[in-house]
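Section: Multi-chain targets

For targets with more than one molecule, the full set of components is provided together so that the structure can be written out for the assembly as a whole rather than chain by chain. Components appear in the order listed by the source. The example entry contains two components.
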Amino acid sequence: MNNPSTIVIGGGATGVGIARDLAMRGVDVTLVEKGNLTHGTSGRMHGMLHSGGRYAVTDQHSAEDCMTENRILRDIASHCVEMTGGLFVQMPEDDDEYFQQKLEGCLECDIPAEELTAEQALEMEPYLSEDLERAIWVPDGAIDPFRLCVANAVSAENHGARIETHSEVTDLLVEDGEVVGVEVEHKSGAGSRVHGNEGEIEEIYADHVVNAAGAWAGQIGAMADLDVEVIPAKGVMTIMNVRQVDMVINRCKPRGNADIIVPHETTAILGTTDEEVEDPEDFPEEQAEVDFLIEEMSKMAPILEDARTLRSYWGVRPLYEPPGTGTEETEQITRNYFVLDHDERDGTPGLTTVVGGKFVTYRKMAEDCADHVCDLLGVDAECRTAEEPLPGSEDDAVLSDAMDRYGLRSPVARRNKQRLGSRYDDVLSGADPNPVVCDCEGVTRAEVQDAIESVGTDLNAVRQRTRASMGTCQGGTCAYRLAAELHPEYDEETARAALEELYQERWKGQRHALWGEQLSQATLNHAVHASTMNRDRDPTDVSVDFDAFESRAVADGGESDGD
Amino acid sequence: MSKPEESETFDPVDLFPEATEMDLRPGVDKCDKNSNCETVCPVAEVNEDFPGPKFQGPEQWRLTRKGDLEFDESVDKCLNCMRCDTACTNGVPLGQMHNVARANYVDNQMNHASREFLRNKMLANYGTLGKLGSMMPRISNAVFGLGATRWLNEKLLGFPSERSFPDFATQTFRGWWSDRGGDATSAERAREAREARGEDGEDKKVAFFHGCYANYHQTEVAKSMVRLYESLGYEIAVPEQSCCGTPMFANGMLEDARGVAEGNVDTFGSLVEDGYDLIATCTSCSMALRKEYPELFDIDGIEDVASHMFDAVEYLRVNEDLEAELEAADVDFPAMTYHAPCHGEVMGVEGIITELFADVDGVELDDTGDVCCGLAGTYGWKEEKYDDSMEIGAEMFEAFEEAPGEVALTECPMCSAQIEHGTGYEVKHPMQLLETALVES
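Its structure, encoded as tokens over all components, is:
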């Protein structure tokens, strides 16, 4: 092997961003991730493409980075971004002075911002509270983290990288005080979904290792006895069934809890809270947090109080501050990021850790980290990730006439196009017939088959790529159809296991939405599945007395063909 | 909202035309995808290209983002029968969703210079056409009856040549009413009837929404209603009025509908303030005022009008002891088969007639069951929809063939046109049956 090599730990936005960047510079990259892509914080974020306005008063460095990256992402990841625009809304109890600081701060950070009257704001977003005083318009938007991470991973692969999902790092390999590789365990799961061998322990060696494990970065560091003080801070997000707003809505007050609504695809996501936890994997998820969120948000948008929620989920921020900073509240900790050179810092060469930062600045973090790694490896190549579009965002123009070609209903065609970007033609020409598999999200068989092709039987990964089962009925009417799409490539038992896994994941988030309409939805789902698929019993236990049917057919004088 | 990705300066643009700017997405929260709506859709049953009410309504609306002006063209195939709206167990506003989606489609996607648009505009504004036709009823009937006219209508305008245009009455109901002495005569007759019945009944006042059909075509229905109501002591007011708007809703012309709704709400709203209840003999008219107006328009007084609007049979069922009145009746009426109009089901009146006459001497009455006639107001009057219309109606035609009755009975003038067209039956309105039973016997 001639090229220098690097292992990237973590399949979140930062990890796939680094993998792509390094691969594009000619480094031989292997990315390992213990779950599927976005398994960690990237898959549990708000879906907000910050303008930086949120940090424009107290954390201007982060604010500037956000705005720069916001512009870049609109360009290179257009199929992952919906430029909704955003509002900072001042309620009667919010401070006038802060409003001014926000407006000025935005302008100082090169964030286009404009003051709106209450009437203007209400005309744009009629479901906001009529009590609002005024608002500031900023170029916030929505971004789909799944699509973005997948596109980065695909791009990395196209540049020769090896992406290993469901491969957990169990140890760092240290030789003579230098990190030289990782030990991973390839997890078994339903069907073929890892590129390594299932259940196998593999030792992977490389010239350098990057720890981009986010909230888990401390645990990785500990494997080489390194102290990486990541502060995991949990936050709850609640998904509404429909978009009550079409712009990002921020409360214009000092950064705090429960103050953002993001219109995300077909839904609106409310968030969030900020509370330090011990373990990023094991922390309490409490209904009181959800109740608090809805109550607070209803002050800005009263319609939310009685609106239907689909589910809630918790994400864990990988906050970091250099030792000795001593900030007390987690929401005050900088959203800046840090590239830690463990040789310089701890005398342990071979490992770089990247921590902190925002989802929106993932590319910049990746660039800085890749610059650092290239320096160490003696690779002389420029970063090209800010210019080169991601797969799916290459060419906007070819899409315009593709709408009618596949006989899709117009809202379905529109959503397919938005999700697939420039891959629209490629993917949709791949299935015929091409019925809608998930009615709630307008997901077609072609999209599902395309996703299955890249992730095998991992229906949760299919879900993240397509949005199938993420709508109103939470998979009640499409989960089994998704599983059926695995056949005939995979057998019945594998499809059943994949279905079970998807059901469990869908159920997890719904537990925090079981009142009103979503409770009745869950009840209906259960009743339908129980009565049609025997899912209230062991569905594989087929102890039906078929003879009884036969004898009845004979007794009725009808014919029976024996099945 | 402008597209900020193209420019970073804020530049609000109202992309939504006035009448169609309603955001109905929150209504999707009620949908649990149980598909009851799908099972009752008459179009989905005969046309496999039609995606059905669940898609048309909650699914399509949920997939909509602000600025998405395009609605799926299949909404043009919806009958506006509202059967899905009635069938929904969760209260999803399907009728409202279809109406607004259709209006968006017609406003933004339909070619306004096309033959279909022109034809639909004529159908939607039938009130105006009817007014012209009934000025010279005999000539109009002769001209519309000509084979050449029918041929031309199909070729030029897309009206199916299979259907014959309904005859204009030689005198409109309003003409008859005014010759008879108008509201004053009605008040007098009602007072006499109340005296004979030994009632004081100061509050027995109804305002009649006759709509187009009872005024220009089926005037006998309106006259029967008048004689029946007066005999029960009700004084009737017949104010100036416009079309109810039903054909405008069905053709996605919400701006036209808003115009007539504003006039009607103004007129009938003041009558409600004066203590009148409102009745109509056509279940589509009553449904428009009771359900569609408040769902689609924000007009001062609209809720009062809606809550005082009744179907003429329903109103008597609520306010009179019809069973007792009918006990003494001995009706000489041919055997009948009742067909409940879809909009009658929305009004909740579909069971009243069969129940009322179940035990009345001399009445033999059965019904066609829960089926749509397929004409659906203006739908069956479109050449390209004629086949679907007749296929939907097939189940009803069959029911009539199998039933022992010789006369058809229904509240809806358009159902009655379809029954005549598909079965050759003579069609009566329940008002005519009730008049025979209670006034003439």
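Residues 400-513 of chain A form one domain.
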